[in-house]
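Our consortium's second objective concerns turning raw sequence data into structural hypotheses that experimental partners can test. To show how far this objective has progressed, the report includes one record in full. It was chosen at random from the queue rather than selected for favorable results. The single chain below, 187 residues long, was entered without modification.
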Amino acid sequence: MRTIKTREDFAMRTIQIGSVAFTLAIVAAAIVTPSHAQPASQSVQAALAKEAGTLSEKFSGLARVMAGKYDWKPGEGVRSVGDVFNLIVMEDSLLAGTLTGAGGGAARPAPVTDPEKMQDALTTSYANLRKTIEGLSDSDLNTPVKLFGKDMTKESAIRYLFGDQHEHLGQSIAYARTNGVTPPWSK
């Protein structure tokens, strides 16, 4: 058995043992920690439909807690709370029409101002959109479409509008917090 002769040998051995222990701890943590990555079995359509569900829950929740404040807006020339919710319903209809080839509907429906009807309109528009997305094949996702005058694939159109809707979600959260309202999922 070899003895440790100097403090430097002892320090070096301590560092080596610590490094090995740290490496083993990292490997063990990686093995037991669940991955937050999209499961390999989940299709693009399923992931996009799930995102539509998340947006639906958040916008519907905000529509509920912002009842009575639909006319509020931070300034002239800016959308009101109700305007944002109505825009989301219109975008869902436009996207579903683009994905099915039925078009987005030429006439805009009358704005919804009743909180219960708004929650229903948001939930219904997202349910229709989810159903449309779930019905797309892999090849459908690559089909070219035009959205707002831009050429893109159906998948790109979904991602484009969902990106826009996330911006409006942030806008709606800011509107809520400015009015002293906490988003329901933050409680």
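The partners drew two points from this record. The mean pLDDT is 85. The helical segments are 7-32, 44-65, 81-100, 115-134, 138-141, 154-178. Both points have been shared with the crystallography group to help prioritize constructs.
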